[in-house]
Q: What sequence folds into this?
């Protein structure tokens, strides 16, 4: 979408993205993630204009109405500067890939259990090739890096072999745990949603409820939430525990809102935004804030991280609906 490139460039994003930058070191996390979330291969100009007209306000806020974080700039070598005339935006997955791969491997290891059927079901969407886009952990790794003045050391890019209930001593490891927890909560919600919707496919595979039955799918989702809770407790931060626990409440509330919506509510944009926040954006907003808290950031910056996640979550879901309607 050309308008997204325009939105991302307005104000140069170097001081208005809600992410830190200084001099020639520019971190374009928001522009990367907006493009990651919103670009579609078959976008049509008319549809793009309609999308822009209805959602320019939310995207504008995400792009340029935030104040800069008062943190140190990201190391120059972490990302290349973006010059409109010389190169396009950098692939955010490529930036975070080594760390995301190690997080994904730890996730698979953390789901091991002595009950084969449960283990097979729980790791169904974490197996290599079935992980999906991994947008949420990518977003959180980029957010953690935006709050850091240095690159993560090489040992932090390797798989964390500590038990799921072990308290990580290094801030980056704690932030990686948030990425793991967020993905477990997300996949658990997918398993439960697929049962409710009687879905047949998910991520190019048979939906778990279709492959193994509704009961196994529900229990596998419960198991993921249980493991996520153990990992969350190991962080020993009551504010972060409260944030991620609230997400689970919001997921349930959003599903109930969707199931019980009255015809007139379906025409209300306020109702749609509320439901979408509960079902999608709450997880992204609260996990971004948790990463900021665990990085020791000032309160104002933690709130900006929450707003960033909220806007990205809403924009992502609106675009998902937009692509489905096309």
A:
């Amino acid at each position: 979408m050309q308008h997204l490139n325009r939105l991302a460039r307005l104000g140069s994003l170097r001081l208005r993205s809600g992410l830190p930058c200084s001099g020639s070191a520019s971190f374009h996390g928001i522009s990367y993630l907006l493009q990651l979330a919103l670009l579609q291969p078959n976008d049509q100009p008319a549809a793009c204009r309609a999308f822009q007209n209805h959602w320019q306000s939310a995207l504008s806020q995400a792009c340029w109405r935030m104040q800069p974080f008062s943190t140190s700039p990201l190391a120059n070598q972490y990302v290349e500067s973006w010059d409109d005339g010389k190169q396009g935006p950098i692939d955010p997955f490529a930036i975070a890939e080594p760390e995301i791969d190690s997080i994904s491997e730890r996730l698979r290891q953390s789901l091991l259990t002595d009950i084969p059927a449960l283990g097979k079901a729980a790791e169904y969407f974490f197996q290599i090739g079935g992980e999906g886009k991994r947008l949420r952990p990518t977003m959180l790794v980029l957010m953690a890096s935006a709050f850091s003045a240095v690159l993560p050391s090489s040992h932090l890019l390797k798989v964390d072999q500590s038990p799921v209930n072990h308290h990580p001593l290094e801030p980056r490891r704690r932030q990686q745990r948030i990425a793991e927890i967020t993905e477990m909560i997300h996949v658990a919600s997918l398993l439960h949603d697929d049962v409710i919707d009687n879905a047949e496919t998910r991520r190019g595979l048979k939906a778990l409820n279709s492959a193994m039955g509704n009961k196994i799918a529900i229990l596998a989702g419960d198991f993921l939430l249980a493991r996520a809770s153990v990992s969350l407790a190991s962080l020993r931060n009551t504010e972060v525990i409260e944030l991620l626990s609230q997400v689970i409440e919001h997921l349930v509330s959003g599903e109930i809102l969707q199931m019980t919506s009255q015809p007139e509510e379906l025409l209300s944009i306020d109702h749609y935004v509320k439901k979408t926040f509960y079902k999608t954006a709450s997880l992204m907003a609260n996990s971004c804030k948790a990463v900021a808290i665990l990085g020791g950031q000032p309160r104002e910056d933690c709130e900006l991280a929450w707003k960033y996640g909220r806007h990205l979550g809403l924009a992502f879901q609106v675009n998902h609906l937009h692509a489905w309607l096309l």
